[in-house]
TrEMBL record:
Family per record: Belongs to the peptidase S10 family.
Pfam families: Peptidase_S10
Signal peptide positions (record): 1-29
UniProt entry keywords in alphabetical sequence: Signal
Name assigned to this protein: Serine carboxypeptidase-like 18
One function term, GO molecular function aspect: acyltransferase activity, transferring groups other than amino-acyl groups
Transmembrane regions: none
One of the GO biological process terms: proteolysis
Length: 473
């Protein structure tokens, strides 16, 4: 007796094919991570890790499903700056549901704990190590590591398209592109790629709703000029020296030529005034080296590393000489541990020495975009929802520079400058702009440095939660 025949056979074959396709896709669509070394018990959220092949690169990602309503909550793509800083920064220091326990660290794998003010409470977040050479992303060809601002944007766009093709259940969720610091350069270019791809009819069509940029590098001249103005406003430079530099440099402190001798001398004096200031947070100590020392009787362990040079503190509650960079040091220990890599499903031998920020990448990186203002101007005609924010104690990307380039977009103010609150306290200041369906919210986060979410995670969560669900700050 025949098992099937005619149309029935075709239907059976089709069903078998669909099932095989499903299992093949599942094998390449990331693996559920239920527990990680250093975390007590099973993870209370869904974490997936995996790779997406883009050209000769294998892009590593962490995906955390929304802890709220994953079927309807937005999808946020997030990658960090540098260039060359891992998205692990976002996951554990900034916007993710994990944090290191810095108290009484005594060696071994650092402990992590569930952090309640995670952006994953209200959105699914796709963290990607971009560009290739960052974090756990790797390539099989040396030439593939020759990347640039524009290549990074193209790489992130292709990664996103492929990931969504493998996870079609998220294609209907509203999509936001998120980036911070130096990735503020490539972030708007990624958004432009998505819009161009949609308009060209490429599949899958991405349900782009907007983008989010934290302390974004945008225009080199505006950013460099703003550092001088900010230093004066914060009392780091005297009125007399600032006025002298303003006159001798004609208000432009970027790309000084030898013919501008007095301007050059004035800027040298300004740099002398701020050279010992922590640029990431002007109120915190500057920790640029690592060596075992005694400070007020407490012994500090030291961890040498190529990128930052860090002091390891035996207790984050000891404020005699606490370094923010202590938490960074723990990431090297954690991510280079074999058991951690096994839990995260890292391909063995793909990345020998994980770095939080791979500064060797800069030797092969081409900085081919000094300004992306024209991209922002173009995007301001596309009816997007946009959130831009700064910490107000950040001397790397000062808030006044961000406010200046936003003004260049010539948008209409719909809600003028005012404070925004968390639990009845001023969390920062905000202003909202609009133009033909394009909505841009700019916010400062009071007391925060670079990047703001590292210093004010709770306030940053409330800012994001209100924005992503269309409530005013």
């Amino acid at each position: 007796m025949a098992l099937v025949s005619g149309n029935s056979a075709n239907r059976v074959c089709l069903h078998v094919f669909i099932l095989l396709l499903f299992f093949v896709k599942a094998a390449f669509s990331g693996t559920l991570v239920t527990s990680i070394p250093g975390f007590d018990g099973d993870l209370p959220f869904k974490l997936y890790t995996g790779y997406v092949t883009v050209g000769e690169a294998d892009m590593f990602y962490y995906f955390i499903e929304s802890e709220g309503k994953p079927k309807s909550d937005p999808l946020l793509l997030w990658y960090s700056g540098g260039p060359g800083c891992s998205a692990f920064n976002g996951l554990i220091y900034q916007i993710g549901p994990l944090a290191f326990n810095l108290t009484d660290y005594e060696g071994g794998i650092p402990n992590t704990y569930y952090y309640p003010y995670s952006w994953t409470r209200t959105a699914s977040i796709l963290f990607v190590d971009a560009p290739v050479g960052t974090g756990f992303s790797y390539a099989t060809s040396a030439d593939a590591y020759d990347v640039s601002d524009t290549k990074t944007a193209a790489q992130v766009y292709e990664f996103l398209k492929k990931w969504l093709s493998e996870h079609p259940q998220y294609l209907l969720n509203q999509l936001f592109v998120g980036a911070d610091s130096y990735s503020g350069v490539s972030g708007p270019v990624v958004v432009k790629h998505i819009i161009d791809g949609n308009e060209a009819g490429l599949v899958p069509r991405l349900n782009l709703k907007g983008y989010i940029l934290g302390c974004p590098k945008t225009d080199a001249t505006i950013n460099d000029n703003s550092k001088i103005i900010y230093s004066h406003r914060m009392g780091l430079v005297s009125d007399e020296l600032y006025e002298a530099a303003k006159e001798s440099c004609n208000g432009n402190y970027d790309d000084i030529t030898k013919s501008q001798a007095q301007c050059y001398e004035d800027l040298k004096l300004i740099q002398h005034c701020i050279k010992d200031i922590n640029k990431n947070h002007i109120l915190e100590p500057k920790c640029t080296w690592a060596s075992p020392k005694h400070y007020g009787g407490s012994v500090r362990r030291a961890l040498e590393e190529d990128s930052d040079g860090l002091i390891l503190s035996s207790s984050d509650t000891d404020q005699e000489f606490y370094c923010h960079t202590f938490g960074y040091a723990l990431s090297y220990i954690w991510a280079n541990d074999r058991s951690v890599r096994k839990a995260l499903n890292i391909l063995e031998g793909s990345v020998q020495d994980w770095k939080r920020c791979n500064k060797t990448l800069s030797s092969s990186y081409t900085y081919d975009l000094t300004s992306v203002l024209e991209y922002h101007k173009n995007l301001s005609t596309k009816g997007l929802q946009v959130l831009i924010y700064n910490g107000d104690h950040d001397l790397v990307i000062p808030n006044i520079g961000t406010q200046e380039w936003i003004k260049v977009l010539n948008l209409t103010i719909v809600n003028d400058w005012h404070s925004w609150l968390v639990d009845g306290q001023v969390a920062g200041y905000t202003i909202k702009y609009s133009s033909n369906g394009y909505r841009l919210t700019y916010a400062t986060i009071k007391g925060a440095g670079h990047s703001p979410q590292e210093y004010k995670r709770r306030e940053s969560f409330h800012m994001f939660d209100r924005f992503i669900h269309y409530f005013p700050l």
